[in-house]
Amino acid sequence: MSKQITMLKASIVMILLASTSEAARDSIRYFGKRHGPNGVGVTPLDYDIWLECLLTTVSLCDPNYNHDVEQAWRECFKQGIAIMKEECQDTSE
Fold first, then answer.
1. Which of 13, 64, 73, 85 would disulfide-bridge 44, Cβ 3.0–4.6 Å?
2. Which of 48, 35, 36, 28 shows the shortest CA–CA distance to 91?
3. What is the three-state SS of 5-39?
């Protein structure tokens, strides 16, 4: 479980850095491909579900959570998740 927690923390940081770091974007592209149809089998919809679950968790843990906080999280994750979704698309169709 500790390995999963470490991986989750690293993925959150990497996705957050996507808007400011080309190295982070390159890593996200790599992991997007690894998680896609030829790897783990994650679909673009799975990232939407992942974000909603993350935001639900944040809302339960942050007493200051409100619409503005939610929008800030969404904006911070927007580019990184878009890259992951693009890289894990099934291009065999």
1. 85
2. 36
3. HHHHHHHHHHHHHCCCCHHHHHHHHHHHHHHCCCC
